[in-house]
Write a structure and sequence with these properties.
- The structure is a single chain.
- This protein is an alpha+beta fold.
- It is 27% helix and 40% strand.
- The protein has helices spanning 40-49, 90-119, and strands at residues 2-7, 15-22, 29-35, 53-57, 60-65, 68-74, 80-84, 125-132, 138-144.
- Strands 2-3-7-6-5-4 form a 6-stranded antiparallel sheet, with helices on one face. A 3-stranded antiparallel sheet has the order 1-9-8.
- The radius of gyration is 19 Å and the shape is elongated.
């Protein structure tokens, strides 16, 4: 008997909202993007994958892509939001976050694969086959080991 697990990066994480607001005090436009990203380690790796420079500070993470800057901060639920200053319009901010979301999803997928591989044997399974498709989805085929419950 075997079990197949299909991991699809696009289904793991997604940007969930984009909104614009103006700061009445300075007349600058800000773009805020809320995400479902929660793991700071995976977020930092994903930011590096998008060629962003990252610096942790008292507010969260200061992020820079070429001439575009954003401040990443966490809400009470541990979710990260990206606050873009006037260096990015909403289309650019949305594109950057979509790229980051894709990179984050691939990092999450990689971590899930690592955990499945690491714990398959103790759970009574043997990894029989692993396929990576063109869309970067991964199919693992696990077989139940003889004598496993």
């Amino acid at each position: 008997m075997s079990v197949e697990i299909l991991l699809v990066p696009a289904a793991i994480a997604a940007a969930v909202a984009l909104r614009k607001r103006s700061d009445a005090g300075y007349g600058q436009r800000f773009v805020t993007v809320e995400t479902r990203m929660t793991d700071i380690g995976l977020l930092e790796l994903a930011l590096a994958d998008t060629e962003a420079a990252v610096k942790a500070d008292e507010l969260g993470l200061s992020v820079r892509w070429d001439q575009i800057t954003a401040q990443f901060s966490r809400d009470a639920n541990g979710l990260w939001s990206a606050h873009f200053d006037g260096s990015a319009d909403s289309d650019t901010a949305e594109r950057l976050i979509a790229d980051l979301d894709k990179a984050y999803g691939l990092r999450v997928q990689s971590e899930v694969l690592r955990r499945v591989r690491a714990h398959a044997e103790e759970a009574g399974f043997a990894l029989e086959d692993e396929r990576v498709e063109q869309d970067r989805s991964v199919t693992l085929t696990l077989t139940i080991r003889e004598g496993a419950r």
